[in-house]
Amino acid sequence: xxxxxxxxxxxxxxxxxxxxxxxxxxxxxxxxxxxxxxxxxxxxxxxxxxxxxxxxxxxxxxxxxxxxxxxxxxxxxxxxxxxxxxxxxxxxxxxxxxxxxxxxxxxxxxxxxxxxxxxxxxxxxxxxxxxxxxxxxxxxxxxxxxxxxxxxxxxxxxxxxxxxxxxxxxxxxxxxxxxxxxxxxxxxxxxxxxxxxxxxxxxxxxxxxxxxxxxxxxxxxxxxxxxxxxxxxxxxxxxxxxxxxxxxxxx
Length: 251
Known about the structure:
Blueprint: E1 17-28, E2 38-47, E3 53-63, E4 67-82, E5 85-101, E6 113-129, E7 132-139, E8 145-148, E9 151-155, E10 159-166, E11 168-170, E12 173-183, E13 187-197, E14 201-208, E15 213-221, E16 226-235, E17 240-250
């Protein structure tokens, strides 16, 4: 959830640091891709000594039809305890480097490659009481764009997020239904349920309304602080299938 809201830290407070590597493979893609792309994401998160602050830094790569996107980011969040009511805030600074290959744009009269730098930032806050969790956040607050010949070539979308969830504890099983609203130029909705079994296995399902997308996630704790998550998703509307793998190390 930290991806959507920088005020939210990782849930396992028994470990101080969490390093993760994530990659995705697309089986069948929509028309925005000229070939099967790959992307990856790596991050390092940590808690401050008092356990109330957290920080994150990372790097990601996305390959698109006519440009490659490299992203560097770093953020910090802090939470306060008001008689078991927790309020957290956070912000994340982004430096986005888009390398455009003009040769892949048939309408362009430019040749070679050019890099565009799009700085931005995310902000968020969250509230927690017992099992109830509420969050508000904004990604790409500045929503900077780059124009070429008076036409917008690249532009970040300012997106608003609201998340609502509740954790139900049944002996050694946690069940957390959740809703995630997002809005940029249109409203989107994720509805799902997260389950954790005996603090080791995790099974989740998400339905993304706008794309009619079904997402299935299976994860678990491995020896030596390692954790592994795998996700499969497909959309009957866009007609694509994806596999996501995330390997983490907590210490």
